Amino acid sequence: MVSWPFLFGIFALFICLWKFPLPGFEQNKKYILLFILSLRIAVGLGTVALYTYYYTDNSKADVHRYYNDAVNMAEVHANAPDEFWANWFGLATDFEYEGRHFDCMLNWVHPYGNRMYNDNRAVIRTHAILRLLGGNSLWAHSLIFSIFGFVGSYLLCRVVGSRWNLPPTGLLILLHAIPAVLIWSSAPLKEALVLLQMGLALGSWFLIKNRIWSFLGAAAAIALLHFTKSYMAFLLLGFISVYSLSSYWESKKNNGFKFKVPSYFIPELVFPLLGIAFYVVFSSLTHWNPILSMLSTKLHHFLNLAAAEQAGSQVYLPPFEPDWLPFLATLKWGFVNALFRPLPGDFHGIFTWIMLPESMAILLIGFGLWLGKNKGMRAWFWASLWYGLALLVLMGVTTPVLGSLFRYKMPLWPLFLPYLWLSIEWIGKNLKRRF
Questions:
Q1: Radius of gyration of the chain (CA)
Q2: 3-state class of 345 per DSSP?
Q3: pLDDT for 302
Q4: Rounded to two decimals, what is the model's pTM?
Q5: Using CA atoms, how far apart are residues 194 and 202, in angstroms rounded to an integer?
Q6: Which is the most buried residue in 21, 254, 317, 346, by most CB within 10 A?
Q7: What angle do CA 224, 407, 185 make, to 5 degrees?
Q8: Cα gap 433→435, rounded to integer Å
Q9: Within 13 Å and on the Cβ side, how many CA atoms surround 84?
């Protein structure tokens, strides 16, 4: 049953969207925003219904697993509030192995025990807070997660629109035409939190004029993202760093350097590569490689889980030990899976068919990168390129199941929206000329 306070809040949000102007969006197109928000709510509720009445094993569905743990966590608050808040803030270990409440928190501890993948706890904590605020059912929480995703997508489209001089409303429509974004960031899952925090971080950095508040807002959002999905916080921090480096380089180049710089010197390429090379040499000499250890452990766990569940959409991905040569051997398969799947023989279920438009969208993005080379957006090009490559590496070498690849690709799309827009715009213009 959906709680009345949440329903009233949704109704008030619709009224505010309709009555009050939103920065960067045309007032006469407010109906588009209301339609997208309504669509998100419907898709979120539909996802909950799908994993409630069709896929009935709640112990295997993330939609239910994290919510059920949050129900148990909220019961701890009813009996011992101090104990609840101590564990919520990570100051106590009652939900850890051998803790007092470990048996009732089935998803608090990851099976591969690596804090880089800590999204379970972020979703459980969010559900627990919503329970305390009056959300007495998963359906009610779905409404709030849909709003989280909507706010994040709104902010990201404003950022892209302001940087590229593109209409935010059109970008918002295009973003929600991508199935992974619409489905997974509308459901009560980690993707809604990730999209919200990405929007808050980039919105703070690019849209707030005061540099102190801009930095503080972006830092706070990235800190939240670290507690939701650590590697996404590092990727977004890398995006902002490369963008800032490129912008600084361009400004110095336009104003004239005090020293001669070769024309072929590309700092956005050279400095990240030097950082990667330093890490490779350091990890090889010290035999301390936490990143490869994390990726190797997660892949082994995912392969075992896929075999146990007899996943029909499993694709070939050889396991590797935490060393660079085995990693590079797996990396080529990871890129193939992340960029080109599903291939003709991969269509087994509904989600593999939904992935097909996304494969076509990746081709359009590749064409858009070529079209955008003369648009004066060098900083965005290099920042999004490194961000995309790093995200594809993380996904590709750890995810041997197509359904999960489809879901985990969600954070890729917002930052590549301008290139998708350029491709579609070019195709539209050429079609008009011919017909």
A1: 22
A2: helix
A3: 84
A4: 0.89
A5: 12
A6: 317
A7: 55
A8: 6
A9: 19
